[in-house]
Amino acid sequence: MDGEEPGDGGGRDTAADDEALLARMRAAPVLAGPLPRFAPEDAPNTPGPLFARWLDRALAEGVPEPHVVTLSTASRDGVPSARVLMLRGVDTADCACLFASDAESPKGRDLAANPRAALTWYWPAHGRQIRMTGTVGTLGEDAARRDYLGRSAASRAAGFTGRTSLPLSGPGEYDRARRAAQDLIAAEPGRVPDGHTLYRLRAQEAEFFQADPARFHLRVRYTRSGDGWTRTLLWP
Would you kindly state one Gene Ontology biological process term found in this protein's UniProt entry (predicted)? Predict the structure, then answer.
């Protein structure tokens, strides 16, 4: 049947299927290369310029969606959660990154209760991973407004459907909300959802991982110390 996933249907031997899936995973190519060269001894003294350099190269060389990042948060009780979103800006000098969300979304509520988070990028084409952890604050209404109004019409309409992560009765309900949101932004192009918030993660640690096809990976960690940074080469 069209659209059916391999292995769907009844009568599955789950253990055998799991072994077959593991075999396919092991056979899948990893770090096929060629990968960029990274010399840790040439890395700058602060992480922001290195992040900007890696991101700029990924954009220039057509790495798919290198500005898409995984945001990890935790609730007040320490329950972790992660999701993928779009990077909304970079402060290279301070090694800070911007992202946006509805303040009443699960991630918005997590950050209100526990304003620490992690960002993780992985670019398979370059074999590069970047991790940042730090404190998160909110920027003002003007910044949030500029961010929202700078988006495409489709993105702005999506912001007005609201109800992030709440139960959905079916596609019809979503379609009605989407059409109502499109009508709203057509009638009021300068309107911004009340909860739209621009967040700023100021990195306290930043790690850069460069993979190597021969598995001699390189890993550098920057740790903020007062007004400066400490750079450390790590075992991968």
Answer: pyridoxine biosynthetic process
List, in order, residues 6 or more apart from 132 with CB less than 8 Å away. Answer: 51, 95, 97, 118, 119, 120, 201, 203, 205, 206, 207
Inter-residue long-range contacts of 63-69, CB under 8 Å, 24+ positions, other chains counted: 63/123, 63/125, 63/126, 64/125, 66/121, 66/123, 68/121, 69/97, 69/99, 69/119, 69/120, 69/121
pLDDT, residue 1, reads: 43
pLDDT of residue 18: 94
Written as six digits, the tokens of 109 are: 């509520």
Band of the pLDDT at 7, cuts 50, 70, 90? low
Q: Is 107 annotated as a binding residue?
A: yes
83 marked among binding-site residues:
no
Domains defined for the chain, CATH in brackets: 36-151+194-234 (2.30.110.10)
